[in-house]
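worker-03 picked up job from queue 'complexes'. Input manifest follows; two sequence lines, order preserved.
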Amino acid sequence: MTATYRVSFNVYPADRFVPLGPSGCGKSTLLKGVAGFMRPVEGNIRLQGRPVDRPGPDRMMVFQEFDQLLPWKTVLQNVMFPMLVSGKYRRDEAEDRALKYIDKVNLTKFRDVHPHMLSGGMKQRVGGMKQRVAIARAMAMEPDILLMDEPFAALDALTRRKMQEELIQLWEETRFSVLFVTHSIEEAIIVGSRILVLSPHPGRVKAELNAHQFSHDHQGGPEFMALNQRIHNMLFAERIEQERVTGHG
Amino acid sequence: MADVRTTFSPPVRAEFENRTLEEGQIGDVARPLSLWERITNVDAVRKAMILVVLAAAWELYARWVNNQLMLPAFSDTVAALFDATMHGPLVDRVWTSIKVLMMGYAAGIFLAAVFTTLAVSTRIGTDLLSTLTSMFNPLPAIALLPLTPLWFGLGTPSLAFVIIHSVLWAVALNTHTGFLSVPETQRMAGQNYGLKGLRYVMNILIPAAFPSILAGLKIGWAFAWRTLIAPNSCSAFRRVPAVSAGSSSRTATSSRRLTCSRASRPSSSSASWSRASSSARSR
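worker-03 finished. Artifact:
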């Protein structure tokens, strides 16, 4: 199955680059390609000049699913695990770094808790906490690029907003590069500094837009709404056009 | 009716706002457990109670039957066990049996690990494991027993072989099923860290599939015992003329037996060789 067709883009250091498109446009496949889980049939993917041919810890991935944490390890052990198995850091270094990033995502209180015991009594909060652990785990590795596959899609609206704010806060502090896949136009504008708009299946590049000037504070403002509308039209204009043609024909 | 429905409306009630208590002020709400509840919360106590009831039922029924040969009473059995342990060779025999059991079990687990590691890392390994398990898993170890003395001679190697056979497939099948049910996200996360091959199996698959593996180990443990006990209870049919030609000289030397294996039965060919195998083992 062709997921995406001749998609080409450049991500610069400290970019918050957001591939955005409707479900089934192949944006997750694109991310898995960058992660090295799949190989493109045509063309290539390069990271700092080196071609990507297998998964590796220089591209840490944060998944949408909450079961990405290893349930037999505590929060601290989960965050330390990739640093240790990749051999990038020594044990004491790894622990220091893990503690620092666990603190950054506000989970110091839960460092010795196992993932299934993470709770504030509410299911939604557990989801947010698990995603925070996954983000801390990925960031503590200091990868060349952070890959996020709709990491907040399974969270409730309030938690999602909080997580978006925290992610931007973290970016302000450490200026990492991130490839953040989403199907929410609003999330793309808030989280992203540059948005890659993909057409419906098979995904092709429709446009690359700047969104670095927008944050939560601009939500509902006229410029924000205008960009939102513009992307919306790009994604759905074709379908409306088609429906009109078939409707009259 | 329609009129009633349109004119009926709920009463307008006064609004109110509560000041909610802080979580800390509420604290943990708990009720102390009674002594009986605390005692019955201990698993060992409940299981011991079941054993006591079973033993009592056994004792009562055996006394009612009143036939030492057909059904010895619980108290007699305990006495016989005590006697065999203190004065007879039981401890020695049990140790011999457990040594064979452990050897077979360890070898079975090792082979299962090799097969499943092959199965998760290569496609041909998967095919090999699924073909072999579907062929050999249904084959009871006792069905192999008549052949093993021919292949390995009498004694430990034969027994170890059938134990390996009964452990290997059960453990391999469960482990492989466990590996397959590890969530895709966890596998991808593991690969993302650059893990592959044996390190990937050791660091991700085995801990993630541990519940299934443990279930497989338990089944394998039970199967190993079954396989060990089956030939032993065959050998309990004593005073059987040795029929199988090849082993007759060795069976003649057999003189040891468990004190509780009193029952004797007329000859059957399968009984004679398995007695031979276990007596050769204990020599």
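worker-03 released lock.
The mean pLDDT of chain A is 84.
The first helix of chain A runs from residue 27 to 35.
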